[in-house]
Amino acid sequence: MILAGSLSLRLLLALTTMASGLNIPLEVEQPPTIITYTSGPIIVLHFDTAITVKCKARGNPPPEYRWEKDGQAFVPPNFQTIRANQTKGLLVLHSEDMSKFEGKYRCYASNKLGTAMTNEIEIKAFSIPKFPKETLSPIVVSEGEPITLKCNPPEGVAPRLIYWMTVDLQHIEQNERVSMGTDGNLYFSNALKNDSRQDYGCFAAFNRIRTIVQKNAMAVVVKRLKPANDSSESSHTPVAPPARIPSLLLPSGVQTEKVLLKGEDLQLECIPEGFPTPSVKWIKMGEVMSPRVKFNNYNKLLSLSAVEESDEGKYMCTAENSAGKAVHYFDVIVEEPPKWLTEPPQSQLTVIGSDVHIKCSVSGKPQPAITWRRNGVMFRDDPDKRMQVFDDTVILFNAKAEDSGVYQCEASNRHGNILANVNIVIMNMAPLILTENNQEYAAVVGKEITMNCSVFSSPPSSISWTKDEKAIEGEGFLAFESGQSLKIINAEKGDSGKYICVASNMEGSSAVTAVLDVKDATKIVGPPQNTQVDSGKLAKLMCKTEYDASLQDTFELVWRKENKEIPLSSEKNSRYSVKGAMLEIMNVNLSDQGTYTCTARTSLDEDSATAVLTVRDVPDAPIKLDLSELDSPRNVVLSWIPGSDHNSTVTEFVVEYEENRWEPGRWKELQRVTGNQATAELKLYGNLNYQFRVYAVNAIGPGPPSEPTERHKTPPAAPDRNPENIKIQGHHPHQMEISWEPLSPVERNGPGFEYKVKYRQLGVEDSFTEHMVNRSVFLVNNTPTFVPYEIKILSRNSYGWGPEPKPVTGYSGEDVVFWHCLRENVSVPTAAPRDIAVEVINTTVLRVSWTPVPPATVRGRLGGYNVHWVRRRSLLNPDKILDLSHSMSFSGNRSHVIVPGLEPFSEYKLTVYVFNKKGNGPKSDPVTFNTPEGVPEQVTVLTSSIIQRDSVRLEWAQPPKSNGILTSYLLQYHLINETALEVIDSKEINITGADTNHWTLQGLKGDSLYRFDLRACTRAGCGPPQAEESRTDFPEPGAASQESSFSTHGWMIGTMCAVALLTLVVVIACFLRKNKGGKYAGTPSPQRQENLAMEKVKEKEEPHSDTESQKMNDDTFCDYSDSDEKPLKGGSLCSLKGDDATGDSVSRYTLGDYADGGREFNEDGSFIGEYSGHRHRGSVSEPNGPSLVNV
Question: Where do Polar residues bias regions lie (predicted)?
Fold first, then answer.
């Protein structure tokens, strides 16, 4: 990296006599420097038996240690109790009585070049605090006189707290008259008779050592004052004490000087005596009182925390009562211990012959006195005038090597002292390079790298860097630390190589070599993507990386979740696994949701990328269900608080109920509400004991139910509704069966439930015939043949009737005429539909219309119409006759229907006939029509093979059904981003020629993933695509010929496999069809017809049970049938049929296939919206409009 505009790194340091923070390497001889020591004071408690005092210094040669106590050499009196380590500076003191070690200690560290010393280390020893044993005489005073109870608490480990209590540990009440001072004494401004007691006790608590000591109890006797005429009659009359001018119990005198250090807390106290009890006031004379001032102890104590110089001055307290007043003055003086004005004096390295200045700048109040020492020994001016002391400054003129040593500056006043050790090293020395020669450095492209060249010399050296014998220049290089470090700001591959550092001064020069290797940076080229996954599924996070191959052994890919490393275990039950660059989380749950970070790391650098994993799960159960009545106990509102939706919006809430009368313990659905609603209005049945619960539903599924509500009981009531789905059936002439859907037990609303059946002949009878029944079926006999009846079914219980029902109309049984012993049935319809018209909607759907038959020709109740069509031939092969038959039944009276399921590009013949319950009517005249071309089916086989790095050969087979004349193939190919699995670029080619079965694509991007979509096309459009994925790349040696050989015949192999599969399907279908056909004969044999006729006669003669009547009512229309003459009972609604008599295969469809995408049927069976053919996944082009064929 050589940039324009040179920046010379050849640095020449100016000679200096002072270095900030002198740091001489230990390879060079130097005087001791104190590194650390135990600062005082050291508190020794009464239970301590040993203490350790530390003192550690560095130097060359290694220093030895000695100790002083109170200014005298400390000689251990007993080797067993004291051990001083002369090489490590550790002082360990052992004794049962540690008080003998009290004092001020100093540690001295010495070698041949000098002596360093510590500040004073004070050791304080405290014994168990105790009050002295003493006998205290009672204090006797008269009423109104002051009392002072002295505590004189023992000294001990701070903090010390003083309490005044009785012997039964009741606190002495304190107030404006009685209070404790800061000295621990209890003061009474004036005595009252009730102050007399024998158990005033002073207690001192030392919390640090968990000790409380008590002084012997003191007695106080207060004498009652006697009146002036002390007669027996007046001796019991109370006499008030005379007024007395206040005076101060504390402090004494008129004025007190209060000296304290800056930052300490100020406390001024005035405790007065007098009668009446004086009040205390404070002022600061000549100044306004600081707002930080606080008053305590009934205004007797002035407190000011962390005093400053501005708090100095004269304060006055005034004690005043009705008899007069007393004052006291406080002179507050704020002082400071010694401190450095800026910083302690710094050690210095200088050359022989230079002048050395050592300045010790301190402040304090009072002004500190400065003491100078050299190697721990005090000194003053040198007789030969080479060293002079000017109070806070020492000057060494024309310094020599022997002047080297440790100089101590100690500043002290009455509040403390501070000490600085200043190492003065006077020497001339050639450069000593401390960095190892041929030190190897590794860096990555685009990052910083710093190469070191640590040098020690005196005077300082000039340092230069070169590479390939050229001075290093350019803005990309930066030298710092006086040239002892060279930083490359943005490393490049070209920066690799050998760098030489040369250091020189007047004493000589030295050089070292540094070797730099710049490697490729570690990068995440495919970061993980934000992912949503359902609970219980597998989550995958991909993190593709690139790194320098030489760092393979140190490379690792670390995954973290919320900045906490994911534990990857080889155990089978571990849910986390890493496969290459992919992290897989099996059976994810909500705890797996969060931010995931993948970190690609080598020994030199790392790169990170994050992605958010969102876990979708079923919703939590709703909480805090609340049930409240509206206008009655049967009309309630249930409300709840939804739980978390777990990242999938709640679509609905389901309210369930359980009642303990009919089905206890069984929960049933009662109501559903939308997901944005948290209340439900519930209509309840009567005479039940309910409880409710709610669960939420989202796209993942239903969540757990809530806790059930309390029981809610509803009162009995009349039924809310009458039976529904009433059916009137006439299985035999002169008979009518009435059935209905019964009310469930919970709908009965009360006891004594039953039904009332009412019926009358429509238009003939005025009044209803009524019957009370308990069943849900009723049989009416002796009815006229096939006449209409009006029927009502009512519900009732012991509390009343249900609402008035709407009448239902039905018919009695139909007539049957027999000829030749019922061998010929003549009750089927007699007329065929006319004016048959076919409208071709698209390739597979028709609209068929006709003129309905006259009602009289139906010969009974109209069942519906049947559409029958035959596929004559495919227009792709018109010479081959197919004759494949299909039919579809449509219930009710209608004039047009929609017929789906036809084949495109085919010729059809279609007829229509009517049917009733007895059979089919004659067929209409046939209509012949053609269906238009459709889009082809999917290409069955699509294979790819690599020809060259940018070329791919595709081969395919024709679709199994072209549904028209093939015109071309549409080929689309897409370049895929393998990381995001997204399409980067897409192109398409129209391949003409129906016989084309291969294509070669050239100019593709090498080493890339492509997806190929191939569609077959007719004039109607293109069919669904067949997809194939392939990666462009050079084929491996030895594999090209094999792959080419396989691809040459791949389409043939695929075609043969497809043909074999279709053949197998046809064989299985024929086998199943053969077995199924035995159950349904096309036309019964004559013997079988006769037996059937006899069975019908027997059915007319025998009465039918209710169960048989219900079975005969399965008159479902629009059925499949295996014959044009006899529809099957119980068939499914509107399904196709095949004609077994022809022996052809049967096609079956459902109208549901044509109702997707918003398409619906009207009540008459026609489509609503657009018509389309059978659904395909590809795009489909249909003819412009339907064609109409009329007969």
Answer: 1181-1191
Cis peptide before 528 (omega within 30 of 0): no
| C-alpha R_g of the chain | 56
User: Are residue 671 and residue 695 in the same domain, yes or no?
Assistant: yes
pTM of the complete model beyond 0.90: no
pLDDT in tens, 278-322: 999 999 999 999 999 999 999 999 999 999 999 999 999 999 999
CATH number at 700 reads: 2.60.40.10
Q: What confidence tens digit (pLDDT) does each residue in 461-514 have? A: 999 999 988 888 888 898 888 888 999 999 999 999 999 999 999 999 999 999
Map residue 1052 onto helix, strand or coil: helix
- Mean pLDDT of the region 1124-1129: 36
Indicate whether 1190 belongs to any domain: no
**Same-domain pairing of 489 and 554:** no
Which of 87-101, 393-407, 783-797 bottoms out in mean pLDDT, i.e. has the lowest? 87-101
Q: What is the pLDDT of residues 877-911, one digit of tens each?
A: 989 998 899 999 999 899 999 999 999 999 999 99
Do both 762 and 778 map to the same domain? yes
Q: Are strands 64-69 and 103-111 parallel, antiparallel or unpaired?
A: antiparallel
Residues 113 and 177 placed together within one structural domain of the fold: no
What amino acid is encoded at 632 in this protein? S
* Three state DSSP letters for 1065-1115: HHHHHHHHHHHHHCCCCCCCCHHHHHHHHHHHHHHHHCCCCHHHHHHHCCC
Q: Are 721 and 747 in contact (CB under 8 A)?
A: yes
Taking the CA of residue 1045 as centre, how many other CA atoms within 13 Å lie in the half-sphere pointing to its CB? 5
Where a domain ends, among 907, 931, 955?
931
Residue 727 forms beta bridges with which residues?
Answer: 739
Q: Which of 405, 425, 445 is the last residue of a domain?
A: 425
> Rounded to whole angstroms, what are the CA distances from 120 to 39, 117, 368, 409, 862?
8, 9, 16, 13, 122
Residue 1097 has a pLDDT of 35
- List Cβ neighbours of 210 (8 Å cut-off, separation of 6 or more): none
Q: Which of 692, 682, 800 is nearest to 750 (CA)?
A: 800
Question: Is there a contact between 35 and 109 (Cβ–Cβ < 8 Å)?
Answer: no
pLDDT of 495: 92
Indicate the number of domains in the chain. 9
Contact in structure between 915 and 922 (CB atoms under 8 Å): no
Q: Are 540 and 559 in contact (CB under 8 A)?
A: no
Residue 291 structure tokens: 């707002």
Summarize the confidence of residues 1104-1115 as an average pLDDT.
36
Residues 185, 171: Cα–Cα separation, whole Å: 14
Tell me how far apart the alpha carbons of residues 453 and 1163 are, in angstroms, rounded to a whole number: 96
Does 328 share its domain with 396? no
Average pLDDT estimate for 158-183: 94
**Angle at CA 931, nearest 5°, toward 929 and 936?**
160
785 plus 746 within the same structural domain: yes
From the list 252, 234, 149, 230, the residue with the least C-alpha distance to 191 is 149
558 part of a folded domain = yes
479 strand-pairing partners = 486
In terms of residue numbers, what domain contains 878? Answer: 834-931
Inside any domain, residue 559: yes
Phi, psi of 435 (to 5 degrees): -75, 140
Joined together, the tokens standing for residue 432 give: 């000593």
- How far is Cα 699 from Cα 705, in angstroms, rounded to an integer? 16
Tokens of 722: 């009458």
Taking only the tens place, the pLDDT of each residue in 550-568 is 999 999 999 999 999 988 7
* pLDDT in the model for residue 88: 74
Over residues 994-1013, mean pLDDT: 89
Select from 934, 1147, 940 the least CA-distant residue to 1062.
Answer: 940
Mean pLDDT of 1154-1180: 36
The C-alpha atoms of residue 353 and residue 534 are separated, in whole angstroms, by 83
The pLDDT of 861-876, averaged and rounded, is 92
Place of tokens 């007190």: 256
